[in-house]
Design goal:
- The structure holds 2 protein chains of 2 kinds.
- Chain A is mainly beta.
- Helices cover 0% and strands 50% of the residues of chain A.
- In chain B, the strands form 2 sheets. In chain B, strands 2, 4, 5, 6, 9, 10 and 11 form a 7-stranded mixed β-sheet that branches.
- Chain B is globular.
- The mean pLDDT of chain B is 97.
- The chains are: A mainly beta, B mainly beta.
């Protein structure tokens, strides 16, 4: 059973960079897409971006100028960096597998089938 | 971005009731639509993919239908453990976008 676990600081100061890591266990990070999704308290879900195990990325245009997602296949981890944060970036951040429903070498990702438990990141001085 | 609009935003029903939630896309998305269940304090859980396919292990009282711009999610007989917020999500175009959610409560 694939499991994902987010880790990183729960408190970040305004204008600084939010950094989170997602560790994948119970399966290989290879051959799949991996995403970050966030949810402000009491609100809905916002996709941040994805990374393919090979390193190719795609980001939400609304966050693209501030987001970097990277992967370390040797550690079975992928990471999120969000720069110049403000209070509006306060949210529960989830990592998730963005599966293709088939061979991801030939298909685009479709659905988020495995999720981490989420980690609350608060932006405050 | 493709906008996803769910209705209703909240819903109160009794155990055993048939419950229906709708999701409308701002443009044709074929059947590129998924449904998730989120219980308080938990991560979302995939229930339905490709508009009508039940994810492995999900009870058969959950179902989905629709194509194009209009989609329906149904619980045939509401159980107490179904209390949650439900989200639709499209993947026709990047970025993938979610509906605003439907909060389901027991009457």
């Amino acid at each position: 059973q694939v499991q994902l676990q987010e880790s990183g600081p729960g408190l970040v100061k305004p204008s600084e960079t939010l950094s989170l890591t997602c560790t994948v266990s119970g399966g290989s990070i290879s051959s799949y897409y991996w995403s970050w999704i966030r949810q402000p308290p009491g609100k809905g879900l916002e996709w941040i971006g994805y990374i393919y195990y090979s390193g190719s990325t795609n980001y939400n245009p609304s966050l693209k100028s501030r987001v970097t997602i990277s992967v370390d296949t040797s550690k079975n981890q992928f990471s999120l960096k969000l720069s110049s944060v403000t209070a509006a970036d306060t949210a529960v951040y989830y990592c998730a597998r963005f599966d293709c429903g088939g061979d991801c070498r030939n298909s685009e990702p479709n659905y988020f089938d495995y999720w981490g438990q989420g980690t609350l990141v608060t932006v405050s001085s | 971005d493709i906008q996803m609009t769910q209705s209703p935003s909240s819903l109160s029903a009794s155990v055993g009731d048939r419950v229906t939630i709708t999701c409308q896309a701002s443009q044709d998305i074929s059947n590129y639509l998924n449904w998730y269940q989120q219980k308080p304090g938990k991560a979302p859980k995939l229930l339905i993919y490709d508009a009508s396919n039940l994810e492995t292990g999900v009870p058969s009282r959950f179902s989905g239908s629709g194509s194009g711009t209009d989609f329906t999610f149904t619980i045939s007989s509401l159980q107490p453990e179904d209390i949650a917020t439900y989200y639709c999500q499209q993947y026709d175009n990047l970025p993938p976008t979610f509906g605003q959610g439907t909060k389901l409560e027991i009457k």
